Amino acid sequence: MATVTGAIGIGSKWLLDKIVGAIAATGINPNILTFLGLVVNFGAAAFFAIGGFRTGAIVIFCAGFLDMLDGQVARKQNRVTAFGAFYDSTLDRYADMALYMGLLVYYSVSGRTPYVILAAVATAGSVMVSYARARAESLIPLCKVGFMERPERLVLLIIGGLFNRMGPVLWVIAVVSTITVIHRIVFTWQETKAGRTLPGIKLSL
């Protein structure tokens, strides 16, 4: 089994490298791939809004592939920049919110108020997980504690869409995202209290 999975891994890496090489050879700006990923996520959000959960899940998977490619292509072309990282992160936030807005529209039109609230809480939790890390890392070197990062959230949305179990998935995202934010708050408090802050950071009592 280990040999089979190893062979699959090697084959997948070979195929990905070929795809990345071919795309990089076109000279396309990686930021364009990032933008295309956002557009594809908007398409997934539109399917969510009309109740096409399974189709939306498949579209999210395709968007995730684009999201993976932009960084790989940037490295292949030696075009990794600080702005590119900022741009990618910003558009990721828009993509995330678009998906939840699609669910908000669906549940609102369906008259399912409890699920509208649940989707709103999941949206807030998802945004705050990213914000808490970004804000913490303006003070301390690293804050990756907690579980509910963007890849985990997207995988859950894909699972919820494919199996038409979006309600339970939103509950998991809402609850675990909130726990992750609290974990990051506590961790940042501990790090700053211990004086493990970035150079130049002045703390007030």
TrEMBL record:
Keyword match Transmembrane: yes
Family according to the record: Belongs to the CDP-alcohol phosphatidyltransferase class-I family.
UniProt record, GO biological process: phospholipid biosynthetic process
Source taxon at top rank: Bacteria
Protein name, UniProt field: CDP-alcohol phosphatidyltransferase family protein
GO (cellular component) term, any one: membrane
Pfam families: CDP-OH_P_transf (PF01066)
TM ranges: 19-40, 46-69, 154-182
UniProt keywords, alphabetically: Membrane, Transferase, Transmembrane, Transmembrane helix
Classification via InterPro entries: CDP-OH_P_trans (IPR000462), CDP-OH_PTrfase_TM_dom (IPR043130), CDP_ALCOHOL_P_TRANSF_CS (IPR048254)
GO molecular function: phosphotransferase activity, for other substituted phosphate groups
Keyword Nuclease: no
